[in-house]
Structure formats: structure tokens, C-alpha cells
Specification:
This protein is mostly beta strands. The chain contains 1 helix and 47 strands. Among the domains are: about 130 residues, Jelly Rolls; about 100 residues, no CATH class. The chain is elongated, with a radius of gyration of 32 Å.
Amino acid sequence: MTGFSLKQFSGTAPKVYPRLLPQDMSTVAQNVRLDSGRIEPWKGNAAYTITPVASYSISAATKSLFRYSSSIWIGSNTELDIVRSPIAEDPFERIYVSGNSYPQMTSAQVVGNGTYYRLGLPDPVGINSVSLSPATSANATTEVAKTQSYIYTYVSAYGEEGPPNVPQVSNLIEIRTDQTATVSFTAFAGGNYNLAKRRIYRTDTSGTYRFCGEVAMNVLTFVDSVAEAQLGEAIPTASFIAPPDEVSADHVDGPLKGLVSMPNGILAGFAGQTVCFSEAFQPHAFPDGYKLTMKSDIVAIAPLTSGLLVLTKEKPAVVQGLDPSSMAMQEIDSTLSCSSKRSVVDMGEYVIYSSPDGLVIGSDSGLQLATQDLLSREQWQAFVPSSIIGFYYEGLYVGFYSTGSESKGFIFDPRGGKNGFSTLDFHATAGYNDLENDELYLVVGGSVVKFASGASLNYIWRTKKFHTPRPINPAIAKVDCDSYSPNPVMKLYADGVLKHTQTVTNSDIFRLPSGYKAQEFEVEITGSVAVNELCVYEAQEEIGV
């Protein structure tokens, strides 16, 4: 028998010489879904109308897309990282944003207006003065004065409390029981903060600062008549600082980027070579003591089951720990650097990202070059790894790339097998994986669409190169489909030359042209209907009819 019959259809492996591919694998698999074993078209993108919140828009330049709620979407031409509040049932429904000029947050109260506040609270300016009333105690000769000092913090309208001011020797006072102290503040200079209160702390006899009282931001004095026994908790925010902000002497690497949410209520981000962790369930506070430094610039970070994967321009690292104060970093002895921050996709138990050599699977157990059997380094470089953006969809990695002359997509199945790699004939600039509804939304051509929810795409599927032991002239072919509307088209190539194009209208056998002989054959199927079987033979009796 000379010819072939295909009842199983699989994806591509460009690294393998086309003659050496398994019989069911392909050299072209575009817009084709193969997980059922037959040729099926991917469904196209369905139009989806959204109204972005104020100050944001959707365009061909959009790089970030986020669904806050069914009626509120955020789109930006900047690469933003947006995470929801780690606080369970957060009454304010806050989100946290990095990638702008400084880290930000917003809430259900104001997000629809496009209002954002700086993430974190500022260090207070010093206390203006502390005065005593009366100025002179009547007990001066009979009572030993108590020495005490004050500090204060800012508190936001969301109840977030920031760091205290630096204690001032000038505000150290000696006070007796017949006196009260009045603490005076300087008016807040302003800034994009949602501040509501000043919270005042006073030293007890041990020198510990304890809660004394609070006043609204517009109140510039606090009269302290609180007995020591009535002082509250010790100040809990002494180590709290805001995350890295604009470029300054304190933040030479610029603002925090790459925000991700980790287990146990921890947010993580990075600036330059430094990984920053928030206080657990306190996403506005990033203590200096929780920072870890890498040996090279960080490109992206991604949460793992037991910690954080830190991807750099050189060697990656894994950070593990359940508490931000006890995070431990272990550098991975690997050259699989990260080429694109936007390529990093959380796949559940592992992460996939783009490296110079291919797609990499990163997990708690290490790194694996996932595409090493599918694509050579040279073939992968043709996709321009630095341009790749990726998304999760039903266990698949959906990627998009731009070469300058071409902008398209691909699908990688990390579960392995013959359907590991196929391509898409369109490009997206941004997207959002909606886990709540199990939907992938993309920005294609400046519009938001719902992936794989529209009409069937037109696919191209091309066989391996079949090599016959002797030169032959295939005589007949058959294409079995469930439906032939619209008609699929079959093309036969012999020794690289197109020999026949057939519009297939039914499952009947059809004749192929004569007058030549060749030893290398390929068959290409195009269309938008499912294909169950493809047969090409030298003689009719070989097809079993």
C-alpha cells in the first residue's frame, strides 16, 4: 500500500525535520483545535462592549486590561499590575496598582470616577510644639515630674495607619498631675492621600509609645488628659513605610512594580534588584526589614504554591516563607532568564514565561525548558521573545508576539503530547483572565473581545512530509467531515509543488491529477468545519472501497 490515512490529527513541532514527524503531526496548525483528536476550528473572538472607568481608555495601544466588576473595567496604555485586596470581604473592595509613576490604590467608592490614591501613608512631619497648662505646676515642690514624649501617625479614610514621625527631643516634657499637655501639629502640606486622622501616642513609664488619642486631620491640636492606666496599645506601625515611590534619594530604582498577591495576605513587588514584601494583610506597609536583594535586575515576579518565583535578566530565584519577616531566597542555578515581564502567566501550580531559549515552566521544584522538543532556539527567537505576552485559558498558554513585520499568536499546551504547539492568525495587545467566569478577554484591534466565544475561525492544517519508497502518482483522496458547509478545501503538494486543489463537498472519493510522479507529499486542509479523516492513496482499492 502506498499512501496514507489519517484518523488522528495533532499539532506542530518545528524543531523536528518534517519527514521525521509522527504520522499524525503537522507542519502548519493555525487556528485549529486538536484536543479531540480531529481537526476542529477554534472559535473566534466575540465582540464584548465595556465602558472603561474615567481616565482610562481602550485603544490599539492598550497594554493592560482589568475587570473590576461587570460594569467597571480598567484599560491603560501602560503596563499595569493590578491585584485585589488580600483582606477577606474587604468592605471597601480595594484594588492595588503598580506600573504608574507611583503605586496606587482605589476602592469601590471612587474607582468609577477614576480616582486613585498613593499606596502607603507618608511619614508625618514633626510635632510643632507641646505646651503645658498651667505652664507652672502648683505641685512643683511636692511632686516629682514625669517625663513623657509624643509621636503621631496618619490614618487614612480606610483605617490604614502609617509610620510615626521621628521622636523629637524638643517635645520631651516634664509634667505633673495638675497639668495637661496640648500637642500642636502643622497643617498637612497635601498630596494624593486619603488621610482622615492623626493618631497620637505617648510614652509610658517604661518609655514605650502607647495610644493616647486621635483627632481629625483638620484639627491641629490635641489636649492630653489621659491617665497612664488608660493608655492603649503600643504603636503597631513603627516599622511601616510606604512602598518605593518616585525616583528619589531613598528610591533610586524608582517606584514599586510587578505587584502580585501571595498566600497569607502578603503583597509583593520589586524595584531594581530588590523584592519588597508587605506586612501581612497590611498592603499599604512595606517594611525595610522585609526586603531581599537579587544579583541582577528583576524582570518579573510570580507567586508559587510555597512562595515566589523571582525572574531576572540573569539567574532566577525562589523565595519561600509563610511570613514576610522570614522569607528566604535561593538562587536557581539556571541560565533561563526572563525575556518579557508580560509573558509571565500563573498557571495554577506553576508559572510559564518567555526566555531566550523558549517557554519555561517554573515551579517549587525548579525550572524546565518546556518547548525544547518543539522549537529550536533559533526558531523560538523568530517569535521575538521580548515581545511575547501570555494568558491562561483552560489549562493552555495563549501567547502573542510581534516581529515588526508580523503580529500573531500561538497556543502552547504544557501538559505535553503531540498537541503541544499551534498558531493563531491574530494578535492581542492586552488581556484579562476572568477566573470567576472562566473567560479570557483580549484587546484585539483596539476593542475588547471574548476569546473563543464567536464564530468558527478559518483554519490551516498541513501534514508532515510523507516520503514514499518509490516515486508514485497518488490517484484518489477522501476527506470525511460531519458537515461540508462551508466547504473545506484540500491541497496536494508533490515535491514541494502544488498539484491539486479540491473543494470538498461530500465524503465521496475524488480523483487526483495524473501525469507526474514524486516521492514527497504534503496535504493541506483549510476551512472551518471539523475533519474526521483524510485519505490519499495511489489506487482506489487501497482505500478500502
